[in-house]
Amino acid sequence: MAVETEDAGNEEWTINVYSRIIEQLESMIVRKGISQVNESILNSLRAGTTLQTEAIRIRNEQLLIKKLEELEEICLFNKGKAFDPAKKLNVIKIKMAELEWYKKVAKANETGYYDCYKKQLSRRDRDVIKHKKFLTNYWKEVVAQNERKPQKQLVYLRSRWLYAGTTYRRMVEPLDIADYYRDNGSNYVTTGRSHHYIKLQQWLEEDEKQSRFRIDTKKQNVDVILTDDSCFWAHVEEARLWCKSLKTADVGMISERVCLRQKLMEFEVYVMEQIKKYAVSSEIFLKGSSFMQWWKEYEMLIEPHHNSPLTDFIRNCKFQQYASGCLVLN
């Protein structure tokens, strides 16, 4: 009982310390303006906090430091002005248009924008990083602002920005996934996904359930749509890792091999469900895409007699009809 009381006291003390640091930083910015705050003060925030937390051995110190760094990023992004999403909307539209153009160019190269960005072979690929960073900072603050609003205002703001936020999430999150797996990451959905993506998806799903808002995918536009599931490429990357593990697994590791095959068959089902709903872009079937690379790897591992809706779909090149919007799926 004494231990629980001590833990509760430590947590409360940690929150108080965090609150005081935030108040001091905000007070400094209000008095001087962000442009007048010495950059070294902001940059030293992490170092100072680290020293304090190490000295008193605060639990969850990394979480505290991360929160303070996020505040610093937001302050720099706003540059001393109250954040008004509407004022930056035109700039956001331009950035999104740049990404849309990038997507079209990548498609013309038979690769797809996800894989073009992941490979980072050209200057154009690297230029996308700047657009992605700007858009991400913007939408992180929009989400944070929405979360701070009273519930009544929250409903209005969510409906107001939901379409743009959903388009952003479906366009930009695949780029974050590309960064994540380029750095040899794994389990993106459970360990690597940003909070603001989770909230944007959650709000969309809540509004769809209440029939206030819905983004419909039309099969005649499947050639140009963004894939509904913004985590689609994370599932593809995981499936490729499973193929690699299955290929290298010792023959005697029966249970592990069975588990991997089961995961891959579940991935087949997931992909086919997306296809049936016309919820996935036809770009995934471009010959240079990671999805088609997965298929080549997977086809070498499955039994010759293995048959499923997805294997039939790919082997018989039905994705060509899918792209044109004239495929009838049962």
Keywords:
mainly alpha, 14 helices
Q: How is the topology of this model organized?
A:
Elements: H1 2-32, H2 39-56, H3 61-78, H4 89-108, H5 113-119, H6 123-148, H7 151-182, H8 188-192, H9 195-209, H10 232-248, H11 254-276, H12 290-299, H13 309-315, H14 319-324
Helix pairs in contact: 2-3, 4-6, 5-7, 6-7, 6-9, 7-9, 7-10, 10-11, 10-12
Q: How is this structure best summarized?
A:
This protein has 330 residues and is mostly helical. Helix content is 71%, strand content 0%. It comes from Gossypium raimondii.
Mind telling me the C-alpha Rg?
23 Å
Oligomer: single chain
Q: Helix count?
A: 14
The secondary-structure element order is HHHHHHHHHHHHHH
Weakly predicted, low-confidence segments = 1-15, 28-59
User: How does the helix and strand content classify structurally?
Assistant: mainly alpha
Q: How many strands, which pairing sense, and closed or not: the largest β-sheet?
A: none
Report on the structure:
This protein is mainly alpha-helical. Helix 5 packs across helix 7, helix 7 (151-182) crosses helix 9 and helix 7 (151-182) runs parallel beside helix 10. It has 14 helices and no strands. It has 3 domains: 2-78, no CATH class; 85-215; 232-324, no CATH class.
